[in-house]
Amino acid sequence: MGFKKLISSKKTLSLFAALVLFGTNILMAQSTGGTALDGSTTNKGVAWGSVGYYTLLFLVACLCVAIFGKILKVYDLTQKMQGKKGLNWNNIMGVCCLIFLIAGMYGAYWSLTVQGSMKLPISASVHGVAIDDMFDLTTILTLIVFVITQFLLFGFLFLYRGSDKRKAYFLPHNNTIEKVWTIIPAIVLTILVVFGFFTWQKVMDTTPEKGDINIDVTGHQFAWELRYPGPDGKLGDLDFRLSSPLNILGINYKDANSFDDLRADTLVLPVNKVIRLNIHAQDVIHSVYMPHFRVQLNAVPGLPTFFKFTPTITTVQMRQITDNPNFEYLLYCNKICGGGHYNMQKVVRVVSQAEYQDWIARQKPYLTDQLRQQLKMPVAPVLAPVAAAAKPAGQDKALANRLALNK
Ligand SMILES: [Cu+2]
User: Fold this and answer.
1) What pTM was computed for the model?
2) Burial classification of residue 86, based on how many CB atoms lie within 10 Å of its CB (0-12 exposed, 13-18 middle, 19 or more buried)
3) pLDDT per residue as tens digits for the range 292-327
4) Residue partners of 65: CB distance under 8 A and separation at least 6
5) Which of 117, 305, 308, 396 has a CA positioned 20 to 30 A from the CA of residue 239?
């Protein structure tokens, strides 16, 4: 379909009208509807950021280019009618290619420097560094290929643009070139895929090992619940059918391993120890996301998942690295799981082994006296972690030994 036919087509005109209407509607809705029920104003400043606006802007830019092209064409025809030489379209197209190359390269440079600085923060886990290395290697390789191919493509289009003084060289086939551009990318891609395969194998290795710290993280609308193993180092069974206001997680107290399981508000992790997160969800799909540790895994109801990682930088060290005395690692929910999703965060603190032992000794068990009564279990005398606070400092070591975690 020619340009004339295209712009006179009723279908094209109706589509254009619909887009204009759609874009205007969005803009009007955003500029007038920014007041919430409580009188507060929202959405200010985003009125011009709508998809409709940019679609319209793109269409207007296309229209301008088309009009400019038509003007040039009219000028060209007028020149020819007057017996003059007319425009050299080969030169115009060649210069357009050169402008495109320069503008495109500047765009790539801008994207790399401005948006490149928005990449993930410094990695604070062992596998995170491996993932970053892979990402950097892929970026460097593709960047080299990108620059070379773009210079060759648009540079050649400009340098060897059509001219009456030159005759095009006819090259129907060349086996050597075909071999080079097939074999080199094949080797590079094979290296990347193999490298990626082994990294992935290592990242996703969730085989339980002695010394791993098992922590349960359970998502529900809209909070994360944490469960640490008690002195036995083992987490008891969970059964969502046992959930109740006193037993939110549905811990199965027929399993003796559950008796000493601990409740925690902050995800405290000892540095350089293997952490095995057991991920659960109780209502909808949530997603455990800890960008600094390069950890993200969905929390799916009825389908427990696992993730093993080793934190390498403590919170205190990270505060120095980022030069931010208030820095905290955070565990986010990365699945839009409902109205309170934005608020589904937990502070993660990476500490030394000694600080961790001290902290875990102060955590309270899930099995409260109230829950014992409800479950008709005998009420415990005095639980070790509760007693810890009352003990003199000298006895802390003995307590730490009793809480022989991760040994
Ligand atoms: Cu969520």
Assistant:
1) 0.68
2) middle
3) 999 999 999 888 888 999 999 999 999 999 899 999
4) none
5) 308
What are the φ/ψ torsions at residue 193 (nearest 5 degrees)?
Answer: -65, -45
Per the omega criterion (within 30 degrees of 0), is the bond before 222 cis? yes
CA–centroid distance, residue 342 to ligand 1 (Å):
8
Give me ligand 1 centre to Cα 298, in Å.
10
Q: Which uninterrupted H or E stretch holds 318? A: helix 315-322
**Dist. CA 344 → ligand 1 center (Å):** 6
Residue ranges of E strands in 221-326: 223-228, 262-264, 267-270, 275-281, 286-290, 295-299, 305-309
273 CA distance to ligand 1 middle (Å): 27
Q: What is the pLDDT of residues 132-182, one digit of tens each?
A: 999 999 999 999 999 999 999 999 999 988 888 888 888 888 999 999 989
Number of CB atoms found within 10 A of residue 24's CB: 13
